[in-house]
Amino acid sequence: MPTDFEKQSYWHARFAHEEAFEWLTSSETFMGFIEPYLFASTLDSHNPTPNSDPSPDSQKSKRILHLGSGTSDLHTHLRALGFLDVTNVDYEPLALARGRDIERRVFGRDDVRMKYVVADVTNFSPSSFSTATNSCAESIPQPQNPDSQPADGNSTGTQRCECESTPQSDLVLDKSTVDAVSCGGDEALLAMARCVRSCLAPGGVWISLSFSARRFEVDGLQELFGVQVLGKIPTPKARATDPDVWHWVYLLRGV
Fold first, then answer.
1. What is the distance between the alpha carbons of residues 206 and 210, in angstroms, rounded to a whole number?
2. What is the DSSP string of the chain?
3. H or E element: which one contains 41?
4. pLDDT tens, position by position, 127-180
5. Of 6, 21, 43, 62, which sits 20 to 30 A from 147 (CA to CA)?
6. pLDDT tens digits along 86-124
7. Rounded CA gap, 119 and 109, in Å?
8. Helix, strand or coil for residue 121?
9. pTM of the model
């Protein structure tokens, strides 16, 4: 029976006992693809320009949105490089509690400086991000029975992607969140893409890690983003004769 990755009940049960887990690859490996876009004065998808002012203040000014943060330690790698304007988003509050615990373990018990926001990545309201603190701030009400909602997480059938009057993100990251969302079908992935597109600042980019070589081959997505492959990561082999299997790192820029 397939795992219900698109259902909140699955993640609630999982995060009740899971304290840390990395999807597809380590954060260190993923950061190798991200760093050129962190230390850049322009987010040029083909040739990121080195930042002429790599000071801590310059780094802190980059606005980063980490979607489906789960129990990954990716956010601590961003903070270790001086990036503090990081908003970690997950629709399971337990995941955000784990994320805050991970930040405490790395930087100190009383030193939580990144933001943690409860939201559905297919139907979020980024206006709440600008007022979120380093506590777990809920951006949307949590349903009594989340699995009764449609795959796009929207019980009313209308999109709620509101970035027009709020600070937009220079960099959006997800570490296989697109794979979990895609379990709800193409429309769920498109809903996520619409929200991400509305939240990107001019010149901003979305970097996504997926197990699928065709993850963004979805009708309608080309109207939102241009997609390129930044690279691929080989998966470990049990035997030398095993076939090559890759995980894919994508860069998406709004059109």
1. 13
2. ----TT-HHHHHHHHTT-----SSS-HHHHHHHHHHHHSEEE--SSSPEEPS--SHHHHHTS-EEEET-TT--HHHHHHHTT---EEEEES-HHHHHHHHHHHHHHH-TT---SEEEE--TTS--GGGGGG--SSEEESSPPPSSGGGS-TTS-SSS------TTSPPEEEEEEESHHHHHHTT-HHHHHHHHHHHHHHEEEEEEEEEEES-TTTT--TTGGGTEEEEEEEEEEPP-SSTTSPP-EEEEEEEEE-
3. strand 40-42
4. 656 555 565 443 333 433 444 333 333 333 334 455 544 568 999 999 999 999
5. 21
6. 999 998 899 999 999 999 999 998 899 999 999 999 987
7. 25
8. coil
9. 0.81
Q: Nearest CA to 129 among 173, 83, 74, 87? A: 87
Q: Tokens for 208?
A: 């996504």
